[in-house]
Amino acid sequence: MARGLALISTDFDGTLHSDGETPPVPAALQQRLASLQASGVRWVINTGRDLESLREGLERASMSVRPDFLVTVEREIHVASNGDYAPLREWNEACAAEHRRLFGVIAPQLAPLRDWIAGRFNAAVYEDEFSPFCLIAQSNADADAIEAEFARRFAGTPALAFVRNDVYARLSHVDYNKGTALGEIGRRCNLSASQTLAAGDHFNDLPMLQQQFAFWLVAPGNAVSQVKAQVRLQQGFISSRRCGWGVLEGIDWALGGRGG
Ligand SMILES: [Mg+2]
Asked: CB of 230 within 8 A of CB of 206?
């Protein structure tokens, strides 16, 4: 039997938030999150967006609630502080150092990969401050083929992860993802996985959609099949409703005592 729900981690795009809805985060979900926060539950938005893009998304969504923590680019942690968010320096600096080391090692292999892609696909490949290789493929089929080639080329570097979200991808160290960042937030709040709920819809959510990090696993109805399969395998909740409405159902399911 789980202890009470005390920590909620929601992905942003396609999970908490939907561009197709007005408001993009259902008012009923905002109210539920606010009342849970008032009773001491902590809430994390755990996203692939960078901090600036997430701030913009939150601003545009005109939300009445604010999370206690943000995880950005699937790996950096920020803590609510004085109406804004402050970086969790110890974690973020260790994370950046680990990535610098790893990306230095693989640098010589990236130009040949870029050439391989350019010869076969019409895809955008570029570098940003978080990854020396970022991809925007034209279709999920193209992204699948590029991911398979990447796996073949980097089979000897198990520390390297190809972090996929729809047609987008970036590189990361396997020790830093939505799951380990959520675990670190739990550790700092003195909360365990048995008190945690995680909700997500796409590939980059798979690392946090594990019992190791969250007892209650939730996928909204729009989640990709791989996410639903992983959640189903671990007795999680798959909503028939999309995005935020599915998250709200998942929270109700957890509060109702999943498998209790
Ligand atoms: Mg998503």
From this structure: yes
Reported as half-sphere exposure (CB side, CA atoms, 13 A), residue 58 has a value of: 20
Is-contact 5 216, C-beta < 8 A? yes
> How many domains does the chain divide into?
2
Measured in Å, residue 83 CA sits from the centre of ligand 1 at 25
Query: What is the distance in A from the centroid of ligand 1 to the CA of 50?
Result: 13
Whether the model pTM is above 0.85: yes
Query: 46 and 161: one domain?
Result: no
Could you tell me the distance, in angstroms and rounded to a whole number, from the CA of residue 122 to the centre of ligand 1?
24
Element (H, E) at 49: none
CA of 112 to the centre of ligand 1 (A): 30
Sorted by sequence, the CB contacts under 8 Å of residue 11 that are 6+ apart come out as 45, 46, 47, 178, 199, 200, 201, 202, 204, 205
Is the pLDDT score of 85 beyond 80? yes
The token pair that represents 207 in the structure block? 């690392």
Q: What's the CATH number where 244 sits?
A: 3.40.50.1000
- Cα(149) to ligand 1 centroid in Å equals 24
Cα gap 28→64, rounded to integer Å: 11
Angle at 191 between CA 187 and CA 195, to 5 degrees: 135
Pairing, β 84-87 against β 124-128: unpaired
Distance 108 CA to ligand 1 centre (A): 31
Tokens of 49: 């967006």
Chain segment 58-78, per-residue pLDDT in tens: 999 999 999 999 999 999 999
